[in-house]
Design a protein that fits this description.
The protein contains 16 helices and seven strands. It is found in: Membrane.
Length: about 400
């Protein structure tokens, strides 16, 4: 049959396999087995120690610190997904959480050793360690850190409980039944969420979802304006430059419509929690404008051939936006996550939606504005390239 001999039919299996490979890598390559690694956690160890009869000066907080941080060469430290950093005190640790520098803060108070030692003398209230979980930084990663810390403190509790009971047994001290729960769990761990994502936040993925919608809205706007520009026939280079500036102005209006419209739908119709609607809508509009200018600049030079770039970028980046950087393969972080514009839009929206301090907004604003400005320059520069059709027509006229 002639149909089976046609080139398109023969190449179809190869093309289908290539498409499946590309989009399989895009949608699953970085997310099929996300393994947390080097998740930053802070430790504020303020325990001043205590004097215990028969033991002298002790510092139980220092013992816990050594247990949590571990020896660098130990197998446990090599397998742990947590990367510990010591801070001076609780206040400085909380400030770092607000600046998205860590997923959790563990605080061992000044009176920890004294309170733990008092359990030996009949105190019924065990000492407490405070754990602050920075949920807004990334909900999945913060939950993983919280679970890891829970397991660590269960082990620590078991060791201290065994030590206390052995000491009481060695001194032949009878234990009041009312003190048994405290001796079985001599350390309380009080966990508190900071920068929470709330109940209506797409499980903390709202920044990534809003960014993806803004990207697609910008893509549609770019295509509509691109085809309109195709019908624009400038009579001079100055008129061509003016048309490109007008294209950018139209993009700015469309971006405002997209930014405020997307957030109005998410907030008013879908119930997304938006603490600062106007500021968030403005930032989303700026992100959409950056996307519009970037796409317009590429299409001004490549034409419709730029479309596959935008679609592939969307499919490759989309799944990555909801994951913590520490859960991504190193190749993905280096080759994609480190430079892609959508990432900076997500970071800015995360600060506006979950943090609200403005401490993490400067870098996304600078990067997005710089990309927009650079794209605008490239777009306007396309007015000064030599049109191929005009050059061909000129050659034919000269030959005639």
């Amino acid at each position: 049959m002639n149909l089976l001999k046609q080139k398109n039919v023969i190449l179809a299996p190869i093309v289908v396999l290539a498409v499946a490979l590309i989009f399989g890598l895009a949608t699953l390559g970085s997310t099929v087995n996300p393994v947390p690694k080097d998740l930053p956690v802070l430790l504020a160890m303020s325990d001043q120690g205590a004097s215990v009869p028969g033991q002298g000066d002790v510092n139980f907080g220092r013992t816990i610190e050594d247990t949590l941080l571990g020896a660098p060469a130990s197998a446990q430290a090599a397998e742990s997904p947590l990367e510990w950093t010591k801070v001076a005190d609780e206040a400085s640790g909380l400030d770092k959480l607000d600046r998205e520098e860590a997923y959790a803060l563990v605080v061992i108070p000044e009176t920890f050793s004294g309170s733990l030692a008092s359990l030996m003398s009949g105190a019924a209230e065990p000492p407490a360690i405070r754990v602050y979980v920075n949920q807004g930084k990334n909900m999945a990663a913060a939950n993983a850190v919280s679970q890891g810390l829970t397991q660590m403190f269960q082990a620590v509790n078991g060791k201290f409980s065994e030590q206390l009971l052995n000491q009481l047994s060695a001194q032949s001290i009878e234990v009041d039944p009312g003190r048994v729960p405290s001796l079985a769990n001599p350390i309380q761990v009080r966990t508190q969420l900071v920068n929470p994502v709330g109940t209506h936040s797409a499980n903390g993925n709202a920044p990534g979802s809003l960014t993806q919608v803004a990207w697609m809205a910008s893509l549609v706007g770019t295509l509509l304006v691109f085809f309109a520009m195709k019908k624009f026939k400038p009579r001079s280079k100055a008129e061509r430059v003016g048309g490109l500036w007008l294209q950018a102005a139209i993009g700015a209006v469309l971006s405002l419509v997209a930014g405020f419209g997307i957030l109005w739908i998410a907030d008013g119709l879908l119930g997304l929690q938006v603490p600062a609607f106007f500021d968030t809508a403005l930032f989303l509009s700026l992100s959409a404008f950056c996307f519009f200018l970037l796409m317009s600049a590429i299409m001004a030079w490549l034409g419709f051939a730029g479309m596959p770039i935008f679609m592939l970028l969307f499919f490759f980046v989309g799944p990555v936006l909801t994951l913590a950087p520490e859960m991504l393969p190193q190749a993905t972080k280096t080759l994609l996550y480190s430079w892609v514009p959508l990432r900076f839009a997500v970071e800015g929206l995360r600060d506006l939606l979950y943090f609200g301090h403005g401490l993490n907004l400067q870098t996304p604003l600078i990067v997005i504005s710089s990309i927009a400005a650079g794209s605008l320059v490239v777009l306007v520069a396309s007015a000064f390239r030599k049109p191929k059709l005009a050059a061909t027509a000129g050659g034919e006229n000269a030959a005639a």
